[in-house]
Amino acid sequence: MMCLSRACLVAATLALAAPSLAFDGGFAAVGEETSYYEQMAAGESLAPAPTADGAASGGLPTELYVVEAAGGVRYRDLGDGRWAVDIEVAPRPHERVDAVYDLVLALPLPLDSKSNAWRIAPRVGSHAGAAPFAYGGEEVVLKRNVPLEAAWLPLLAGAPNGLPELSSSDYVWTFWDAIVRYDPTASSTLQAFGSFRYTTPSWVRELDPEDPRNAAYVITWVPTLDAVPPFAIRLDVQAPAEE
Amino acid sequence: MAIPVPTAGLTTGVLLAAASLLGELGPLVFVGLVPLLRVLARAPRSAVAAREGFAAGLAFFGIGFSWVLGSEVGPGLALSVAYALTIPLLAAGVSAFALLCAWAARISPGLLVTTAPALWIVSELARSHGGSLSIPWLHLGYALGDWPFLVQGASLVGVYGISAWIVAVNAHLAYRAGWNAHARTALLAAPLALGLPLLAGDATDAREDPAAAREDPAAAREDPAAVLRVAAVQPALDESQRHVAARLGANLGRLLELSARVAPQQPELIVWPESAWERAVGGAGDAFLATIAHGLGTPIVTGAWRPPGPGGSGWRNAAVLATADGRTPIVAEKVNPVPVYERAPSGPVARALHRAGLWSGRFESGDEAPPLQLARAGAPGATLGALVCIDASHPELARELRRAGARLLISIANEAGTGAWSAALHARIARLRAVENRVPVVRVANTGPTLWIDASGRVVARLPVGEPGAGSHGLALAGPAPPFTRLGDDRVIASLGLLALATLAARLAQSKKRKGVQR
User: Fold this and answer.
1) B282 near A CB under 8 A
2) Are A62 and B255 in contact (CB under 8 A)?
3) Contact at CB, B280 and A152, closer than 8 angstroms
4) In angstroms, what is the C-alpha Rg of chain A?
5) Quick check: B95 and B53 in contact, CB under 8 A?
6) b vs e for B345-374, b when ≥16 Cβ sit within 10 Å of the residue's Cβ?
7) How far, in Å, CA of B368 to CA of B335, rounded?
C-alpha cells in the first residue's frame, strides 16, 4: 500500500512538472519556489522503508529527472593532443532537503583519454577572482569514479529517461562525484564552474554542439530516497570560442 | 517449618555478579564460589545443596542479567518475560552443579577440587550451546577480561579453561582452607595458583589514554606491513533514532562526518558499527556504499542487514566490506542472533511466544564466512576476520577465523538498546578472544566501548564511551597461532572430565576397599 501511494505521488509530481516545462532552476522555474527534492520529499511516505531492498540494481536508480539548465560545457583543443573541458553551472536554486547527496557529474570524454589527476575542483565567483567551491564547510572535489561508471552506466546509458547513448561516437561517459551533506547555511542559489585537462589521441574531434545527444549532466542523487528519480541538469555542449 | 535462608548461595551469587559486571572487581571470582563450595564440601543433604545452588544461580544471573530489564529493544514486556522465565532455568543449572558437587563431597570432600571445575564448565558449555536460547555470557573467565595479565593462559586453554582454573582455585580455598588450620597452606597456594597464567607471557596492561595510543613501534620498525592502521567510527546514536526512516539522512551524515574527520590520518580500513548502514544490502550489493568508500579513498567495513534471498524467509544481520573499486561483498553474518528480540522464532516454545507477541525476532542464523582479504597500498594484502556482535562471545567462531588465516579480528556491535553493562561485558569478551588467539581485535560499537586491543588483550586505545567519536590506530598483525587456536578447547574439556572421572573412580575404589577391610 505504501509502495503504491509512493508511486502515485512520484508519478503525480512528475506529471505536474514535466521535463519539457522545466528550464533552468528545475521546479523553481515552473513558478514555485520549492526545489525538486523539496517537493519530492515533502510527503513523509517518500522516506524509504528501513527494510526496503535495493538489491535489484545495487540500489542504483534506473532513470533520471532531467531539466535543461543554463551554463554548459565547452571542449578546447590546446594543441599537441592536449585538451581542456570547461564546465559551467549558472546560478540555480539550492535543494533545501536535509539529506546526503551524491553529486555526480556525467561528462563525455574521448575514449582513451589520459590525465595525471582525475579530479575536478569546482570554483565559484568570477573567473578572475575565483574561490574554491565549499559546501558544508568543506571544499568539494569531484573525483572520477570508475566503479560507479561500471555499475550505473549499463542502467542509464541509452535508457528512457537516462543518459544519451554515446556508443556511435568517439566519446564515452565518465562519472565524477562527491558525497555532500545538506548545508542549511548555504545561500539560496548555487553556482560553480570548473575545468579538466586531458590528453587524447590526435584523431579525436570535439563533440558536435548541434547534436542533441551531446551534453554533460550534473546529477544530484539522494540515495536514501529510493523511489525518487535523481534530479539532473543538462549542460549543453557549446561551440568552441572564436579565437 | 521455616526454610533456612540460603545465605552461602546468595553470597556466592552476589559476589560472582559483582565480579562479572564490574570489571575492576573481576578478581573477586577467585573467591566468589567459596561460600557455596564451603557448604557443599560438608556433603549436605541434597535438598540443602540444591537450594543453595539455586539461590546462587538466582542471584548471579538475576543481577548479572539485570540490564535486560532496562533494555529498549523488543516489544513491550517481551524481554521482561524472557528474563523471568530464563533466570530460574539458568539457576537450575547451578542447582544441578551444587547437587553433583555435594554428591562428590559425600564420597570425599577432596573430590570437590577436581570435579567442581569440570561440572561448572559443563554448565557454561550448556548455556553457550543452547540453540535458539544460547546465552554465552557471564562465564567466569570473562570476569577477568579487564585484567589481561591474569588471563594469558587463555592462549593455551581458552575461556573455558580459565573458568575451570577459577573454579579450581575457589574449590581449593573452600576445601583446604575453609576457615580452619589449613588456611595458611591455602593462603600460600592461592597466590601461586593466581600467578600461573603469568608464565604464559608478558601482558602488562597498556596505557589506555587515546592520546598515548601506540602502534607497536618495534613491529612497525621491523616490517611496516606488519602493522595495520584501522579507523573506528562510533556514532553514539540512540536506539530510538536508529533505523527510523526520517533519521536515515541524519544518521548517515554523522557517520560520514566522523569518517571524514579520521580519513586524513590515512587509515587502511574504516569500520562502522553493527547495522550502522541503514539500507538493506542485497545480493547485488550497494553502489552508494561503494561510492562512499570511493569518496573516502578507504575501504569500509560496516554492519548492514541482508534481506531474504530468493526462496529465503529470514533477514540476516551482516557485515559488508565496501571497497573503492565498487564492490560491496558480505564478509560476515551473525551466526547466533540474540534470542527473543533478534532471532527468528524456531521451535514450539519460541513460536508460541511469537504468537503471544513476546518474541519479536526476525533474523535467521547466518552462515559462517571465511576471512576477508583487504588490499593494501604498497604492502601485501591483509587477511582479516569479522564478527557481528554476540558472535564474538562464541570462542569457536573467532578461532575458526584465526585458523583460516585471519591476522586481525573486527568485532562490530551495537548495545545502544541494551545498555552500558551489556556493552562492557562484550568488551571484556573481545579481550579474551584476543588473548585466546593471540590476535589483535578492533571492537567498534555504536555507543562504545570502541577499543583497539592488541594480541595480548591489552587495550591500546579507546574512544570515550557514549559520545560520538572516531579514531585511527595501528595494530601489529598477529604472528603464529597459539595452541588454543591450533588445538581448540576440546582437549581442555576432555582433560577436566577425565580428571574428574579418574579421581572419582579412585575414591570409589578406595572407599570399597575400606568397606571390605571393615567387614
Assistant:
1) yes
2) no
3) no
4) 18
5) yes
6) beeeebeebbeeebbbbbbbbbeebebbeb
7) 6
A208 touches chain B (CB under 8 A): no
Whether this model's pTM surpasses 0.90: no
Cross-chain residue pair A55–B278, CB shorter than 8 Å:
no
Q: What are φ and ψ of residue A232, in 5° steps?
A: -140, 140
DSSP string, B347-401: SHHHHHHHHTT-----BPP----PPEEEEETTEEEEEEEEEEGGGGG-HHHHHHH
Set of cell numbers at residue B368: 559462517
Helix (H) or strand (E) holding B416: none
Q: Which of A 43-72 lie inside 8 A of B, CB atoms?
A: 44, 47-60
Reduced to 3 states (helix: H, G, I; strand: E, B; else coil), residue A90 is strand
Q: Are B409 and B434 a contacting pair, CB within 8 Å?
A: yes
CA distances from B511 to B106, B506, B514 (A): 11, 9, 5
Q: How far apart are CA B162 and CA A40, in angstroms?
A: 59
B145 phi/psi in degrees, rounded to 5:
-55, -35
Cell 545538506 -> residue? A182
Restricting to B residues 328-357, those with a Cβ less than 8 Å away from any Cβ of A are 328
Longest CA–CA separation in chain B, Å: 88
Find chain A residues with C-beta within 8 A of B281's C-beta: 54-55
Q: Cα separation of B68 and B71, whole Å?
A: 5
Tell me if chain B has a CB within 8 Å of the CB of A179. yes
Q: In chain A, what residues touch B310 (CB-CB under 8 Å)?
A: none
User: Which residues on neighbouring strands pair with residue A77, listed in sequence order?
Assistant: A83
In chain A, residues with a C-beta closer than 8 Å to the C-beta of B257 are 181
Per-residue pLDDT for chain B (519 aa), expressed as one digit of tens each? 567 889 999 999 999 999 999 999 999 999 999 999 999 999 999 999 999 999 999 999 999 999 988 888 766 677 888 889 899 999 999 999 999 999 989 888 888 888 899 999 999 999 888 776 788 999 999 999 999 999 999 999 999 999 999 999 999 888 876 545 555 555 555 545 555 554 444 444 444 444 334 445 555 556 777 999 999 999 999 999 998 888 888 899 999 999 999 999 999 999 999 999 998 888 888 999 999 999 999 999 999 999 887 777 789 999 999 998 889 999 999 999 888 888 888 888 888 888 888 888 888 989 999 999 999 988 899 999 999 999 999 999 999 999 999 999 999 999 998 999 999 999 999 999 999 999 999 999 999 999 999 999 999 999 999 999 999 999 999 999 999 999 988 877 787 778 778 877 777 777 777 777 666
- In angstroms, what CA-CA distances link A51 with B275, B277, B306, B451? 12, 12, 9, 30
Phi (first) and psi of residue A66, to 5 degrees:
-105, 135
Spatial neighbors of B499 by CB under 8 A, at least 6 apart, are: B114, B118
Whole-angstrom Cα distance, residue B73 to residue B56? 28
CA distance B243 to chain A (A): 6
Burial of B121 (0-12, 13-18, 19+ CB in 10 A): buried
Phi, psi (deg, nearest 5) at residue B291:
-65, -35
**Strand boundaries in B300-366, DSSP class E:** 300-306, 316-322, 330-333
Length of chain B: 519
Question: How many residues make up chain A in this entry?
Answer: 243
Contact yes or no for A177 and B328 at CB 8 A: no
